[in-house]
Amino acid sequence: MPLPIVAIVGRPNVGKSTLFNRLVGRRVALVDDRPGVTRDRREGEAQLMGLDFTIMDTAGYEDEDPLSLPGRMRQQTEAAVRDADVALFLYDAREGLTSLDEEIGRWLRSENTPVIVAANKAEGRGAEAGRLEAYKLGLGDPLAISAEHGEGLADLFDALRPHVEREVVEGDELDADVDDEHAPLKLAIVGRPNAGKSTLVNRMLGEERMITGPEAGITRDSITLDWQWIDDGGTPRAVQLVDTAGLRKRAKVEDKLEKLSAFDTRRAIDMAEVVVLLLDATRGLEAQDLRIADSVHEEGRALIIALNKWDVAEGASALFNGVKAALEEGLSQLKGVTLLTVSAKSGKGIDVLLKAAFKLREAWSRRVTTGELNRWFEKAVDTNPPPAPGGKRVKLRYITQVKSRPPSFVIFGTRVDQLPDSYQRYLINSMRRDLKLGPVPLRLSMRATKNPYHTANPGGGRPASR
After folding, report:
1. In 10 A of CB 252, how many CB atoms?
2. Is the pLDDT reported for residue 401 higher than 50?
3. H-only helix segments in 277-401
4. Which of 222, 220, 332, 317 is nearest to 275 (CA)?
5. What is the pLDDT of residue 254?
6. How many Cβ atoms from other residues are within 10 Å of residue 62's Cβ?
7. Where are the alpha helices (DSSP H) in 133-210?
8. How far is residue 408's CA from residue 162's CA, in Å, rounded to a whole number?
9. Residue 463, pLDDT score
């Protein structure tokens, strides 16, 4: 199911492309002080405090002949609004409302698309008068934002959420766009060079599809292969396998081709649902393995760690327990990560690995029902109330899940910027246990209910990610 569409509209040079770049998270659209830089509609995948949507940058709206270039650009903008789930009408708070802004407002009122009005460049007290002028448009309460400085994004989150958050039927545990259990599992195999990744893929496929050998670094490109795994019940399950190049420590990578291969592998991680980090059991766990695991977790992907060459490993029991202990210490942000043993050569353990991968994807895609989430939250806070730094109580009011894949939550309250990391870890660990989310990455952001706008994460700091 496609993401909801948010179209940014407004006259030239009010900061539409600057806001587009901020929501996309990188400098995609050209930005210049001259008006009219943007001519065509540009789309990008945006994220705001866990809300995922398609953001559309449009040309500046001008009152010109429809056959002229500005007129044809305006037609593109009008088409964008008709296709959008919500229009974000941007104007310059420092200049105040112009006659063209008022014309745009009249046009937007005639459309069926919901409209959010935002006064951009609203940093500083001098812009407040310009913000208040927008009430005459009759399009609701105008937001005060600064696309350049990232101010007002919390209010923008509140305004966009009713229009772009996916509706989920009570009791449905999966997002609407991922509730098909027959959708192919996107499974990437990663690890250091010569860990046996290509051999494992060949064993799964039942053919010598990938070139293998004793030399490290044979695989250079990330190769995607469609495959069907037959589960215990005899049901074929679609899998999209991705074999990747080995990842060495960055400091050791000097060859340009190897750098490109490493980039390709990291892109494969980003596109995967579940990532299998393959270790060479004859070499044990190394620091590079932990770095790879951490990068998978930071990308928000479900992770399985598999000890390969288990059939030739010495002191198997002691080795397994040693690796498990090292993971608990070196990968504490992902408590209880799945650790399995396999043999790519004989095929032993592959069915267990695939079963675990499908189960992890289910947890990674899960949408917790509102009732279950609130019952857990009340119990967790009552059992272990938040501390009171400086004698002032931190009050946690309520929690909401803003997305899945991975499960992401926002807690609303007062003085949440003073909530220690240890308490956030308590909440996440409790969530894993009580809501049966398991060892998948969880995202937890704090939102101050009376903090109008500071950053996209008004609770202070980065969202907790465990």
Report:
1. 9
2. yes
3. 287-298, 316-330, 350-364, 370-383
4. 222
5. 52
6. 19
7. 153-164, 197-205
8. 17
9. 53
